[in-house]
Fold each of these.
Amino acid sequence: MNLSSSPLFFFTFFIVFNTNQIKQPGHLASILVKNPTSRSATQQIHSHILTSGFLLHHSISNALLLLFNTLLRCSSFGPFPREAFTFYKHLQHFPLSFDSFTYSFLLHASITLKSNNPGNQIHALTHKLGFHFHVYVQTALLNMYVACGSLLLALHVFYEMPDWNSVTWNFMIIELVS
């Protein structure tokens, strides 16, 4: 899926362009438009945000969270999923409130790595922070455990879910049949 066709990208693009406090917002957004899956583009935006002091402006935290989630998504779906964890580690030192999309993208990075070890850590973190009942996080957890071959852990997540939707049922049916 092309990043520029994502609704999250367009929302991020709109917020970044309509926030007056951000210096050169068009430059950051245009980098993602021109190179939606480029490693160097995401690294360039990451370094620009860290060195420019954007994180010190509390009034633009929502716009930055959307931009960060877009960068996490690019990293986790791309060929360098470890960068998603490195990027998240850098972001933990700043006053940002992450959302369920942040953790679902990190869980997808675990799938891309084909390792549930970082996913287990994110799972514990979502419990600690109260995101374990968010539908995006639950579905990403289920997907991660199924993709990494941990059916018992996937069943545990499935049974903990307060509501089962068609996506979660499909994951479980496909895995149990195969």
Amino acid sequence: MGCRKSVCMARGVFCRCCQISKQVSDSLEDTALKLCRKAATTAETLSQVLREGLKKRRHFKAEKISLRQERLSIIKQFRRLRTKIYAFLMESMPDGSTR
């Protein structure tokens, strides 16, 4: 005679077939829970890595902008100094002669 699951459930006593079915079901549920926990941990780790990556990217981008501004400032200072040197040379040689 085959397994009658409804009879086993009503009595609360499980036949061999229902015991195996319950063990498999419990095992699958445990495995599913473990996988969900692992997925959540992995998602949190990925999220954290992405946040850190964005922070570093912003930091490097700000640093790059700062370096660019510093470079432009140095170029402007050099141009001003060059202009002053030319003006000084022109004043010191009024006849326009070169040395």
Amino acid sequence: MFENLSDRLQKVISNIKSHGVINEDNISDMMREIRLCLLEADVNIKIVREFTDKVKEKALGEEVRKSIKPGELFVKILKDELVDLLGGDNSPLVIDKKLVVT
């Protein structure tokens, strides 16, 4: 399941990077593909909608700098939102040394 999701997202990302300009039509097409990828991976539809809405909102509101390509910026936004969706920053594993497993 994760391999298929990974492969499909890689295809979407490759497609994103090929666009010289990111506009609302491009983003809508890309978000449709991402939505399908996530739904096929059994992600809850409410979560998928929230995720795609956040990515689209950030992508349309982001100002592109001359030093970065629009596709690269979209990939960064997508990555940041995926990390946030999956739980955000890494949390250290705290193990209670007093715990005894028998």
Amino acid sequence: MSQIEKLLLRLISSPKDFTFEELTKVFVYLGFELSNKGKTSGSRIRFYHKEKKLQYLAHKPHPKNIIKEKALKDITHFLMENNLLK
């Protein structure tokens, strides 16, 4: 099993210590691009999939780098709803 497959399984299990870097790796693997929403976007981040015309808006967690459990569930639901995650 590859590292990204392990990371996808970890995302589905909604761990309490999933980091923003891990989330970025998952989105990039699934074909998304990461972008800030402008100079004044602050912690808002946009993941955009050009081919499927999908976007997911997220907040980069701070001061810690851990994504909240509710946000992980929302992300998992979004990816499954759009047939990007099984």
